[in-house]
Amino acid sequence: MVRELKEVQGIIFKRQKYKEADLLAKIMTKQDGIITLIVKGALRPKSRLSAATLNFSMGTYVIYTSGHGLSNLRTYKEVKQFDELYQDLTKNAYASFIFDLIDHAFVEYQPIGKYYDLALFALKKINEGVDCEMITQIVQMKMLSAYGVEPELRHCVICGKEKGIFDYSIKLGGVVCSDHFGVVNSRMHLKPKETAVLRTIGLLPTDRLGTITINEETKKATRKSIDRIYRETIDLNLKTKKFLDELKLF
C-alpha cells in the first residue's frame, strides 16, 4: 500500500523507548482509529517532538502512513497537554486505564467513532477534578458494547418492565425486575440503589452528566459489580487495571 502524508487529530496515550533515541507512541483518533507512531529522535535533549508526544497530549499530528503497521510522525500543530494528569498520580492512573480499556477493544486503524468522544469526555472530566472513580465506571459500562456484550439496562430482560426495583444478572445480560427475583438464580443481589446507578451511568448520554453525588459505600459496590461483569464476560488482564487497584489500597 502506498505511504502518504496525512494529518490526524488525536490524543497520545502511551509511549515507550524504541531503539537508541526514538519512541513508539500510540495515538487515539476518531476517524483513523488507534495508530502506533515511530517518533524519531524524540529522546534527544533538544527534540521538539518529545514534548508533543507526552502521554495525554492532544493535537493535530502530521504522519507518514500506509494505513497499516507502524507510521512515522513528521510534525505537529496546536498540541496541548492536560496538566492536571501530570501532577496527580491517581488521575493519571485512572486515565491510563480508561485509554487501555478502549485500546484493547479495537484493532489498529479501525475507526472508533463515539468511543473517541467517550475517551475525550473522560480525560476532560478527570483533568477538571470530577470524581475519577465514577467517570471510570461510566466508561466501563459504556465500553461493554464495544466488546460485544452490551447489557440490557432499559428494561427487564424477561418481561420488558421499565420501572420498579431491579437487580442485575450477568448470565441473562442485563437487569431483572423484582417480579422475577424468586426465579432468577443468577442475579447479583445488588441493592436497588446500586442497580439504579449502573442503569443510569450506562444509559445517560455523557453530555447530560451533571454533578455526581454518590456515597462511598454505593460507589464501592458498583465498582465491584462492574469488575465482576468484566471478569465473567470479557477475558481482560490489563496492567493498568492492576496498578489502579493496587493504588486504591494505599
TrEMBL record:
SUPFAM superfamilies xref list: ArfGap/RecO-like zinc finger, Nucleic acid-binding proteins
Keywords: DNA damage, DNA recombination, DNA repair
This protein's record includes keyword ATP-binding: no
Annotated ranges, domain DNA replication/recombination mediator RecO N-terminal: 7-81
Transmembrane segments: none
InterPro entries assigned: ARFGAP/RecO (IPR037278), DNA_rep/recomb_RecO_N (IPR022572), NA-bd_OB-fold (IPR012340), RecO (IPR003717), RecO_C (IPR042242)
UniProt keyword annotation of Magnesium present: no
NCBIfam families per UniProt: reco
HAMAP family per UniProt: RecO
Function field: Involved in DNA repair and RecF pathway recombination.
Family assignment from sequence similarity: Belongs to the RecO family.
Protein name in UniProt: DNA repair protein RecO
Gene that this polypeptide is encoded by: recO
